[in-house]
TrEMBL record:
Keywords of the record: Membrane, Transmembrane, Transmembrane helix
The species this protein was found in: Electrophorus voltai
Name of this chain's protein: Glycosyltransferase 2-like domain-containing protein
Region (Disordered): 1-25
The keyword Chloroplast is annotated on this UniProt entry: no
Length: 384
C-alpha cells in the first residue's frame, strides 16, 4: 500500500515544507490499520530541509515497528538521479518482511515538478497490494486507511475516494461542496442515452446518459479527487502509469479516464477522512482550465458522441458555441440545432460558424427548446 507523494512543486525554500511534511507523517503514523509497514521513499528537493525532516521520522516510526526506506538526490534532473547509483538509499533489514498483513505502506515524498513521474516512482519503489495516495501537505484521519481498504477489498477494479475538509476554511467553497456532495450514482453515472449535461467551468460535467453506464465528465477533474485515491496495485498497473509530461499535465484526469475506459468503478467513503490543504503553489494550479476542457470534450466525443447520429446543443450562448467549436468536424456535422429560451437568440434564427474553412460557412438553426428534439448536450452554468 502506497501512502503518498507530494503534489509537485509546493515545497520550496521558505514555504514551511518541513511543517506540512511532518503533519503528513504524523497522520500516517497514526493510521488504524495494524500490521503493515511504512516505507518512506524520499527524493527531497535541495532547496529545503525536507530530507532532514524525513530522516527525523525514522526513530519514531521504527519504535512502532514500521520500516522506512529513504532515498534522495539533489539533481535538477530527477529521472537520472532516481536511477543512478549516486542516490543515497538506506534499506532497513526488516524490509524483507514487509507483508506481515499482506499490506505495504509507503510515504513517497518526491519534491519536484514532475508530478506523474513522482507517483510512478512511488509505485515502483513500494510493493504492497493496495495503494493509498497521501500528499505531503495534507493530513489524513486515523481511520482513513481502514475504511478505504474495506471498500477496496470488495471493489478491486475501483478507485476509492473520500470526502474532505478544506483548509483554510472557506477556500474553494463550491469545489469543496461538489467534492463532498455528489451522489453515489453521479460518481459513475448511468442513464438512458438521451441527455448529457455539460456544466461550465468551476462546476461539473456529468453524463446522465451513456447507454453503457460508464461515463463521468467533470470540469473539476475526477469525481473523487486524486489526494483521496485508494486502489489495488493490480488495477493501477492495468490502467496506469501516470502521464509523466510534467507541469501542466492533468495526469490524474488522464488516469481516471483510462480506468473508466477499462470498466473501472468509482466509490467514495462518505466521511471526511482527509484535511485537503489549499495553497497557491499547488501543482494543480499549473493545469489550465482549457486543458481540462479539451480533455473532457475529447472523452465525451470518444465515449458518447461517436455513438450518436445527431444531437441538439442546449444553449445558443457563449458556452454552447464554445462547445460546438471544440468538436471535431465529424461531430460538428451531427449538430442538428441549438436550442434556448432567450428570445433574442432565437430571433436570429441560426448560428454561423465563422471560423470554419468551409464555403459557404455552416449555419446551425437556433430553436426554442419546445421545438427541439433529443438527444441533448445541455451547456449551463450553475451558480449554487
Amino acid at each position: 500500500m502506497w501512502l503518498g507523494e507530494t503534489e509537485g512543486t509546493w515545497p520550496r525554500s521558505g514555504t514551511r515544507a518541513d511543517d506540512h511534511s511532518s503533519r503528513a507523517a504524523v497522520s500516517a503514523r497514526g493510521r488504524t490499520l495494524e500490521g503493515g509497514n511504512i516505507q518512506v521513499v524520499g527524493h527531497p528537493d535541495k532547496c529545503d530541509n525536507s530530507r532532514a525532516v524525513v530522516e527525523g521520522w525514522r526513530e519514531r516510526m521504527e519504535k512502532r515497528g514500521l520500516s522506512m526506506v529513504i532515498s534522495g538526490h539533489s539533481s535538477p534532473k530527477p529521472r537520472g538521479a532516481v536511477l543512478s547509483s549516486g542516490s543515497n538509499t538506506h534499506e532497513p533489514a526488516c524490509c524483507s518482511n514487509v507483508l506481515s498483513f499482506f499490506l505495504f505502506l509507503s510515504i513517497f515524498l518526491l519534491l519536484i515538478s514532475l508530478v506523474g513521474f513522482a507517483k510512478n516512482q512511488a509505485v515502483c519503489q513500494s510493493s504492497g497490494r493496495y495503494l493509498c495516495f497521501q500528499d505531503a501537505d495534507d493530513v489524513m484521519m486515523p481511520q482513513r486507511v481502514r475504511l478505504q481498504y474495506e471498500i477496496a477489498v470488495h471493489n478491486p477494479t475501483a478507485i476509492v475516494g473520500c470526502q474532505v475538509r478544506r483548509v483554510p476554511e472557506g477556500s474553494t467553497e463550491r469545489y469543496t461542496r461538489w467534492i463532498n456532495s455528489l451522489s453515489p450514482e453521479k460518481l459513475l453515472t448511468q442513464g438512458s442515452g438521451t441527455l448529457i449535461t455539460l456544466f461550465t467551468p468551476c462546476v461539473s460535467l456529468n453524463s446522465f446518459a451513456s447507454g453503457r453506464g460508464l461515463e463521468v465528465y467533470t470540469s473539476h477533474g475526477p469525481t473523487v479527487v486524486m489526494p483521496t485515491w485508494f486502489c489495488s496495485r493490480d488495477w493501477f498497473h492495468k490502467v496506469g502509469p501516470f502521464d509523466e509530461g510534467g507541469k501542466g499535465v492533468a495526469e490524474d484526469l488522464l488516469l481516471f479516464y483510462s480506468s473508466l475506459r477499462l470498466g473501472g468503478g468509482v466509490v467514495r467513503v462518505d466521511e471526511r477522512l482527509l484535511v485537503y490543504r489549499y495553497h497557491k503553489l499547488a501543482a494543480t494550479h499549473s493545469v489550465l482550465e482549457e486543458t481540462i476542457w479539451n480533455l473532457r470534450v475529447d472523452f465525451l466525443q470518444e465515449r458518447v458522441l461517436s455513438q450518436w447520429d445527431s444531437f441538439t446543443i442546449w444553449n445558443a450562448g457563449k458556452q454552447g458555441r464554445k462547445f460546438y467549436r471544440s468538436l471535431n468536424p465529424t461531430n460538428q456535422k451531427k449538430v442538428k440545432a441549438f436550442c434556448d429560451v432567450d428570445e433574442n437568440k432565437i430571433k436570429k434564427g441560426f448560428y454561423t460558424y465563422e471560423e470554419s474553412k468551409e464555403q459557404p460557412k455552416p449555419k446551425i438553426p437556433v430553436l426554442h427548446f419546445t421545438d427541439s428534439s433529443p438527444p441533448f448536450i445541455v451547456c449551463v452554468k450553475l451558480v449554487s
